[in-house]
Amino acid sequence: MADPSETGSYLDAPRILHPPPGPRSRELLQEQGRWETDAVSYSHYFPMAIRSARGATVEDVDGNRYIDWVAGISVLNLGHRHPRLVAALEAQSREVWHALELPTEARVRFLQELEGALPGGLRNHARIFFTVTGGDAVETAVQLADFAKGRHGTIAFSGAYHGVHGGAVHLTSGSRYHSTTPFGGSHIVRVPYPDPYRPVLGADEGSAGTIAYLEHLVNDPSSGADQLSAVLVEPILGEGGYVVPPDDFLPSLREFCDRHDLLLIADEVQTGLGRTGRMWAVEHADVTPDLLCIAKTIGGGIPVSMVAYREDLVPELPRGFHIGTYRGNPLALAVGTEVLRVLREGDLLPRTARRGAAVVERFRGMAAHHPSIGDVRGKGFMIGVEFVQNRASRQPWGDRAKAMRSALFARGVLMHTSGAWDQVLRFMSPLVIEDELLERGLVAFEDALETLDGSPEHAAARTGPQPRTAAAWRSPGGPALGHPVPPGTPGPHPISGTDDEGA
């Protein structure tokens, strides 16, 4: 159970005083539009201007308060302005802000802390290469793999998202990202990701089909795959739709790489640092990658990233192998040290696994009475709810997922889409969300479903799992934080204070 003094959320969220966007938000959105590029996206999904954020909540400039199930796209696993991260940032800000690659106490403390937190055989047996963004880390990892093997070819998967700048954009699978870049394609071989809900190579029967296809690529001289050095994989697809692969996928992939002298690169930019209920998603499969890409939560909102790679991978890298002025920023590393300490102390990770499993069951209970939901899957607080037009055909329904995003926003809950057709709503709340806020968000989600379905028999026939009190979410022995307003309360919407017709 989350301690309010640790997370500091606005416990009266969601609170809608002015249907968003409120008047002051509209003014600031217009001003932003005057000066900033048209290429921005999130202000179209969530039209508001933020005044402050605490824990798992956000307040806009009109006084509306939202439950945040976006968390900066998994940047804020420990929430907005976690007190321990704030203290680490303030302390470091009085010492040094920028130091190039010169050693500082903040840098060395971070390296020591990270080494002890790495998965499997990398723990205390890795070298760290600092980068700035997630895409930068992935691009560096591929460069390292190519350099180590003396070959230039990477196996990547459909649905993958590995960044959109420079060479990383072609490691990402979406054609919409390729169409706006001048960078040519690299030596990349694309393989279908084993998706149990939408199997292409037999993912409904484990990963045998995927591995068989990979064997074809490396063994058949006519496959078109030459000079491969590495396999790059997300342990769970992120932007690709929060797809959880079969349990045997990562172990089989590890064995495949070992058989063919290929390096395994795990992109844990979104899955890492507690998101799935373990420090790293690869730990669910007891697999150690050769290279690990780390970003997002590690900086607590300050841009920093890195690659951890086997210390025996290369005897020596040339100076300037991959450069960047902002690599290893001392402010970010001071915060990162505290991020790792918070995650490694206490029961936050196992509690995330327990509560995440309960959230999956709640979504599945809703799906039992709402055929627009085709699939619910996830680990920890990385959960995907996929919308379909027809369960038999599994035809993706992106419009419904986007309508749900808007309906939730009107109710004071932030939730975002993913998937090739934007058909998946993804639950990626901060891990520290209070029990009653988690409950209120789930109530709002089900209320939005009922409203969009437009079918009165759904409400009358609902017999699935009913809303819990906060006490039901707590860890054994933990105190309850309060009780949600039950659904079906007459008058204004029980969550937002607005009428359903305004959703």
Would you kindly provide a written description of the structure presented here, covering whatever features stand out?
- By secondary structure, the protein is of the alpha/beta class.
- The protein has two domains: 4-77 and 347-502, Aspartate Aminotransferase, domain 1 (Alpha-Beta Complex), CATH 3.90.1150; 118-320, Aspartate Aminotransferase, domain 2.
- It has helices spanning 4-7, 23-35, 42-45, 71-74, 83-93, 105-115, 134-149, 175-178, 208-219, 249-259, 330-344, 348-367, 398-410, 435-453, 456-461, 470-473, and strands at residues 50-54, 57-60, 65-68, 126-131, 154-157, 188-191, 230-233, 263-267, 291-294, 305-310, 373-379, 382-390, 395-396, 413-414, 416-418, 424-427.
- It has a seven-stranded mixed beta sheet, with helices on both faces. Strands 11, 12, 13, 15 and 16 form a five-stranded antiparallel beta sheet that branches.
- A hairpin with a 4-residue loop joins strand 2 and strand 3.
- Helix 5 runs antiparallel to helix 11 (330-344), helix 9 (208-219) runs parallel beside helix 10 and helix 13 (398-410) crosses helix 14.
- The longest helix is centred in the C-terminal third of the chain and has 20 residues, at 348-367.
- The relative contact order is 0.15.
- Mean pLDDT is 87; it is low at 1-6, 177-182, 456-466 and 475-503.
